[in-house]
């Protein structure tokens, strides 16, 4: 009997924040270990910790993810049929500097070029802009493949929780 060859649907990429709901992003982020539900213990990786205090941390995780989506300069999503399988966003002035941030691909879809296309589509919208990323060691090779290089400077951040 001949083997059945299953060909997946082509991945669709959509530029624009309207395509994705906070609930869909929360579900995708959980697949890569980023959690936003305070009850489950927030990692705070994308939008900060959800522990008490004044300001954004008091808002619900989904409301904050909605702000992450709406407040980005550009959002690109990847879809396999109705399923969100990748998300990328950037913040930029559109002229000089841009930050690529919170790129995530559903693990079952890794190493299929989706992450690359998400980042390249973001940057293609802003020719001439210097894009930066703060990358953990395990994804440094991914960003190097996309042409990013390490600089001998130190990222500094002030934690809104004061820690
Ligand atoms: C990082 C991530 C987005 C990569 O997505 P992906 O769809 O698997 O990446 P791609 O398939 O487009 O890979 C592009 C290139 O990088 C390489 N690459 C991807 N991940 C890599 C890794 N962890 N280590 C080494 N190389 C890697 C691929 O082999 C490919 O190389 P090629 O150009 O020679 O073919 C995905 O692993 C992920 O979601 N990780 C968890 C979330 C995260 O840490 N995001 C980054 C923080 S902003």
Note down, in words, how this protein is organized.
The structure is a single chain. This protein has 163 residues and is an alpha+beta fold. The protein has one domain: Gcn5-related N-acetyltransferase (GNAT) (Aminopeptidase). Helix content is 23%, strand content 20%. It contains four helices and five strands; from the N terminus they run βααβββαβα. It has helices at residues 22-31, 61-70, 114-124, 140-145, and strands spanning 12-15, 74-80, 83-92, 97-105, 130-132. It has a five-stranded mixed sheet. Strand 2 and strand 3 (83-92) form a beta hairpin. The model is unreliable at 38-54 (pLDDT under 50). The structure holds coenzyme A. Coenzyme A (COA) binds next to strand 4, helix 3 and helix 4.
Discrete helix count: 4
Order of helices and strands: EHHEEEHEH
| Whole-number count of domains | 1
Bound molecules: coenzyme A
Strand content: 15-25%
**What is the CATH superfamily classification?**
Gcn5-related N-acetyltransferase (GNAT)
Strand order of the largest sheet: 1-2-3-4-5
Helix percentage: 10-25%
């Amino acid at each position: 009997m001949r083997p059945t060859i299953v060909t997946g649907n082509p991945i669709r990429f959509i530029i624009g924040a309207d395509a994705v709901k906070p609930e869909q992003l929360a579900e995708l982020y959980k697949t890569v270990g980023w959690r936003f539900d305070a009850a489950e213990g927030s990692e705070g990786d994308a939008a900060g910790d959800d522990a008490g205090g004044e300001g954004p941390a008091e808002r619900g995780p989904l409301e904050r993810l909605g702000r992450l989506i709406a407040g980005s300069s550009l959002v690109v999503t990847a879809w396999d049929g109705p399923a969100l399988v990748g998300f990328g966003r950037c913040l930029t002035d559109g002229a000089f500097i841009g930050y690529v941030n919170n790129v995530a691909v559903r693990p079952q879809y890794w190493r299929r070029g989706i992450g690359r296309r998400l980042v390249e589509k973001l940057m293609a919208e802003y020719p001439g802009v210097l894009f930066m990323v703060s990358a953990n060691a395990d994804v440094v090779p991914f960003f190097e493949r996309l042409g990013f290089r390490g600089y001998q400077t130190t990222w500094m951040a002030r934690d809104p929780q004061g820690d």
